[in-house]
Amino acid sequence: MIDKKRRQVVSAMGASVVAVPVAALVTSLPSHADSMVDPTSAQASALQYIEVSEKADAVCSGCSLYQGDAGSEAGPCPLFPGSKVAAAGWCSAFNPKA
Ligand code: SF4
Question: Residue 55 is part of which domain span?
Fold first, then answer.
């Protein structure tokens, strides 16, 4: 009886472990990035995100994490799942494209 319950608990734990990464993937897809990042949000504040960079050579569109199309005004960034960052923006995680 105890073994059966243990198997049920272990099985349920396995299902939840699989469900979380799938949910994270779905919400990080570009099609779910509809709204712009709120610069006053906790995540944006923590990363010092600004919509217009103070340095012309350090902007989101030149960052290796930027997922917007070339020439786009905004695009997804994995650090802000579900939102778009401004192509002219910047944050402290900026990493120039190689
Ligand atoms: S990591 Fe920062 S600088 Fe790079 S695209 Fe995302 S918000 Fe912009």
Answer: 2-86
If one counts the domains in the chain, the total is 1
Residue 50 phi, psi dihedral angles, 5° rounding = -130, 150
Tens digit of each residue's pLDDT (9 = 90 or more) over 4-54? 655 554 454 454 444 444 444 444 455 456 899 999 999 999 999 999 999
Q: Other C-beta atoms within 10 Å of 35: how many?
A: 11
Task: Say what the pTM is.
Answer: 0.70
CATH at residue 43: 4.10.490.10
> Residue 28 Cα, ligand 1 centroid: separation in angstroms?
14
Residue 97 lies in a domain: no
Contact 51, 10 (CB under 8 A): no
Closest ligand 1 atom to 47 CA? 2
- Rg (C-alpha) for the chain, rounded Å, is 19
